[in-house]
Amino acid sequence: MGGRKALKRLFVPSRRFSVSLIDTNEVLGLKSCIVKNINASVLRMQGKDSKKFLQDFTSNDISRLDIEPALYTGWLNRKGRYLYDSIVLKGMEQDEFFLICESTTVPNLSRHIKIFNIRSEVKVTDISKEVNVWNYLSTDADALSKVVEMQGKTRGDNDSISLGVIDPRRSKGSDLDRRESLMGTIVICPIDTQPIVPESTPSVELDVLEAYRMWRGIPRDTVELIKEESLILEANFDWIDGVSFSKGCYLGQELTARSHHTGVIRKRLMPVRIIPEGESINEVKSFQRAQPTDHLFPEFFDGTMDIAVEENAAIKSTPLNGSGRAKSAGKLMSIVGNIGIAQVRLKESQQENVILKCDNLSLLPIVPTWWPSDEVWNV
Question: What percent of the chain has pLDDT over 90?
């Protein structure tokens, strides 16, 4: 490898991945890139009842697709717990929608739809063998829109599709008062083609996409979003435009609405910087707010760190002076290098003179740029 540093991608032991041949220094300098998302699959939904079905069984207001190209939404069980998530794109024909979802959950999501589809005219087809999903990442909002325009929106003679949309997971109101795209541009194109992107855009491995979504604090189905356990408000669906509180009833709506109207969410998923044992911390803070930058990754990112922890390892809020009892403060869900996503108990993590510990690691929670102002979520 000629001295090149490789980006090591490590979740928990049950989700261990191989080392990819990506130069860490090259990753740190990235301002844009294109990556094929092999973890994503596409379902086509057709039929005159498709729109109503999505409205009745997912968390977002599907009627917005009358004027918007895509929405992020969740599927819940009757108790209001998370089942699946989808990015829903408006198709090119009437009553046609494309659902981008985690590849491993396609069979279960298809089965879930069919169970509730007894009296509805809805047809679902897995078209993952016909198309690929790509992500174009950039810190330039104009570049994201340009890539959408470059794809067009076409259907080939063999019914193949090609289209691009800005990822609908967006901030609903940050300190900067903007709706920033959190995961770039999504492109669906035939399996034997590639997206049209600006010249000199580097093509990178999937590990870079995973590291980027963790730095941005975006959860992924089956990794941080756990079936029949997770609550979508704890996963920030309310802040990334993934749930509507005005659309009316949908399956599992009651728990989500009640949690929202009480106004207190005590745990949330958020990025964390991982500081290994033996490394000093110059300035200990309970939280660190991320700053806008023209690069995809922060300067401190080190993808070569090989850190092994137990699955869903417990996080403790530990007094700095060594006195007092450590309190439960959440759990570490996933890691890429020295960046991860943790479920953090906000109150316990904001006490004075404490530090978050996970085994022998110190954790510094990162408040993403797209989170609301502190007074909204301080508890």
Answer: 60
* Cα gap 177→190, rounded to integer Å: 37
Pair of tokens at residue 358: 């996970």
Helix (H, G, I), strand (E, B) or coil at 148: helix
Model pTM? 0.90
Element (H, E) at 180: none
- Our measurement of the distance from residue 117's CA atom to the centroid of its chain's CA atoms, rounded to an integer in Å, reads 28
Indicate the pLDDT class of residue 17, thresholds 50, 70 and 90: very low
Report how far residue 157's alpha carbon sits from residue 221's, in angstroms, rounded to the nearest whole number. 34
Q: Would you tell me how many other CB atoms lie within 10 Å of the CB of residue 358?
A: 23
Q: Give the other-Cβ count within 10 Å of 48's Cβ.
A: 11
Give the helix ranges, DSSP H, for the chain. 24-28, 50-57, 106-115, 141-151, 206-216, 253-262, 346-349, 374-377
Dump the DSSP string for 4-69. Answer: PPB---B--GGGB-PPP--BHHHHHT-SEEEEE-TTEEEEEEESTTHHHHHHHHSSS-GGGGGT-S
Please state the φ and ψ torsions of residue 216, each to the nearest 5 degrees.
Answer: -80, -15
